[in-house]
Write a sequence for this structure.
């Protein structure tokens, strides 16, 4: 994980790429009881956080963070990850990789405008429906030559890794520009800037 000082190289994009150091430290020390922390299925809200209060006869009683007490089938509760996994950059690293954990993580990251998240080999992008300052030359330069694990999730990281593999002969790559949508244009733009920075 990069420190706040290391994140300065990303310029204005830094706050949209990785949560601040203070927030990460607070999450490490937040109280958490793995035996009682669950997500529960609640009508009209899908999954909510709650505390398991009773489990018997195939039923589970959970007190939601909103103060409701809900009794559901045991298979309708899902273990939560410790707070240190909130806004996780790579969801494959989560202790509990279940549907509510994935949705919660994406929701929390999106609420902070961190639209890029890894899930193992894949880069998940949630459309912000507004322009964020994560596509400028400063950001391109910050991702250039870095391994995927050395930088926050971004399409530029994926593009640069493909470019580096191509240069080292580990991957044959052909870029063809035709009928390109918005995301593909950004990928191509990154490769174009890296190959010919004077343009």
């Amino acid at each position: 994980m990069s420190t706040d000082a290391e994140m300065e190289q990303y310029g204005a994009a830094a706050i949209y790429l990785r949560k601040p150091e203070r927030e990460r430290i607070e999450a490490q020390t937040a109280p958490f009881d793995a035996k009682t922390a669950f997500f529960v299925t609640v009508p009209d809200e899908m999954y909510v956080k709650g505390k398991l209060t009773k489990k018997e006869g195939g039923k589970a009683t959970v007190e939601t963070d909103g103060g409701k007490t809900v009794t559901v089938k045991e298979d309708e509760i899902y273990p939560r990850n410790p707070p240190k996994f909130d806004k996780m950059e790579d969801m494959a690293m989560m202790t509990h990789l279940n549907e509510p954990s994935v949705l919660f993580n994406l929701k929390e990251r999106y609420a902070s405008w961190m639209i890029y998240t890894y899930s193992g080999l894949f880069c998940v992008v949630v459309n912000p429906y507004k322009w964020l300052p994560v596509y400028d030359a400063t950001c391109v330069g910050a991702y250039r030559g870095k391994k995927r694990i050395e930088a926050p999730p971004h399409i530029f990281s994926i593009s640069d890794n493909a470019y580096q593999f191509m240069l080292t002969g580990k991957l044959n790559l052909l870029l063809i520009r035709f009928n390109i949508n918005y995301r593909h244009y950004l990928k191509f733009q990154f490769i174009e800037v890296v190959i010919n920075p004077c343009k």
